[in-house]
Amino acid sequence: MKRRGVTTLQSSSTKDSMPTNRHESGGFRSIFITSLVWLIILLVSLYATNRNSSTASDCSQVGLIQTAFCKIGHVLIGFCSESDQEGEHYRQPRSAPIRSPSSSDKNSVKLKFTDIYNKDLCGKDQDCQDNFIVPEESAIINSNPPNWPGEMGSAYLPPDHLLEESKARFAENMFDIAVSDRIALDRAMPDIRNENCKAHSKFNHNLPNTSIIIVFHNEGNSTLLRTLVSIVNRTPWRLIHEIILLDDASVDREYLNEPLQRFIETLPVRTILLKNEKRLGLISSRVKAAKVATGETLMFLDSHVEVLNGWLLYLLEEIQKDRTSIVCPIIDVLTYDAFQLLHGATDIFGTFSWKMIFRWSKIPGLTANNAQPISTPTMAGGLYAIDRLYFEELGMYDEGIKIWGGENLEMSFKCWMCGGRIVIHPCSHVAHVFRKETPYKFLEHESIFVTIFKNYKRVALVWLDEYKELIYAVNPDIKRLDGGDVSSRIELRKKLNCSSFRDFLDRFQLKNFPFNHRFIGSISTSSRRCLDSMTGPDISKGLNTQVSAQACHAEGGNQIFLYTTSNKIHFDELCLEPNPEKASNQDIILTLCNDERNQQNWEYDQQTSQLKNEFYQGQCLHVSGNSDVVLARCDTNKPSQKWSFNQEVQLHK
Length: 653
Description:
Pathway: Protein modification; protein glycosylation. By secondary structure, the protein is of the alpha+beta class.
């Protein structure tokens, strides 16, 4: 039986299953035996169809599949025959003290797929017939007992006897796959949309359809399958043109071969499994899948997510309004150790640091009940929807970017600078498992940092114009590395008639790229000690870090500062400020730049070469004997208070 381009699992009878007796004479006996055989075949066929295929009621489309899985060691590898089953169920595995299915139904635990947006469910309700109505979460078919592991997004803390397995298998995915394996594939999740979002629950039936693209490498079995089940259960099937799974050369994961193929054949929507023979990385794999896709839009997802109620409709509606939109959901968190749902912030937008690292920034004054799309300078890049033809017009991804890293910035700059827009929709929620760290290598011949820095170099060369010099100054390794040939991407930028990076900055007024600068470089004392931010790769973690004076190394990095005409000393989005928690002998720390805080203002006296704080009168920037940078009484006789600026980056003002 076929449905929507997907062949369901069925038992089939062959000619060999029909007995004949060439030596039997007598027409009556021959007719009787033949009729009996055909009756048996019919009964077997009906049994097999009822057992394994999708079925349709007169009011909804429902798919039923067996969810008992065979295990080799701790690895779930596929569907079991009843004789092989050990009572282990994906939907509710044995796990004391949680109640297991009774012995009478242990071989019949089933997943039930229901298209909750099916018109047949509307009856005579014309409003429902004409529109997609986002239902309450309770309308989603789910018969799981509420005390099953992880239901409603609750944390599952494994009992003592599972702790050893959890610890032993953690490195497989850098999240607790043993915990995931004990949570139902179709677990219930809360509806976390705000009230204004819930009020906007009606969508016209003419929304564009989508090709959902999921690229994975060595993904955990239960996390991948739960991703698929959540999509099917919380999305109008008519809007899913297809789901494209692309296995980027997974190794030693047997369950990602035939067992996965057999699973997706049971899904009630068209699902394609592609495989790379060799590792291409996320970016090239997404491009490969996008070239196969034929939906009106593309929906990129990661392989360890759970989509929440109404998620896709809000995204597609924005693209329908403006085909040059890239629309991102709110990214909620699934904790890597307990798979607990934590609500993502809805009052933030994406920016990026001087070290080319994406980060979130808070939007002041945005109400918690906001239901309007939020313009965002950059996007995280893992989860977003885009018109398929517009994706092609933008040149897809830069395939010179290897594995991942920087592709989100490249797409963000390209979209905004070439006439598009990127928004985050606060009503669309997708929960994502954030790994503790990356569980796999990037490229065999180079470190993960080299690969990512080369990617950043390509983005800087094509899109940042003169501002790439600031990036190079802070990241000398990026400047030294060869990003490869970017001529075709530069030609693409010219072809698309894109604006300048300065225009991009002017649009968003990012605090870490102020236009009113008068100096970018190192700031040193007469004894060749330079201000040093003492931050790591993630600048945002440098908040409240104590600034030091280190030997000048002329390598840029943490010794690059930007001095503005408003007398603030920036390191990215952080500014130098005396520690407000100390009344005297104040050390100098990095705090978020704030135009209203005069404590962050340092007037440079060209006569004395001192940096004088405008809030603390008579106090100057001073280097103590142990190289700490502190606030001290101004003294023109102290060399430790005499500073010089060493210009290293020239930008247009």
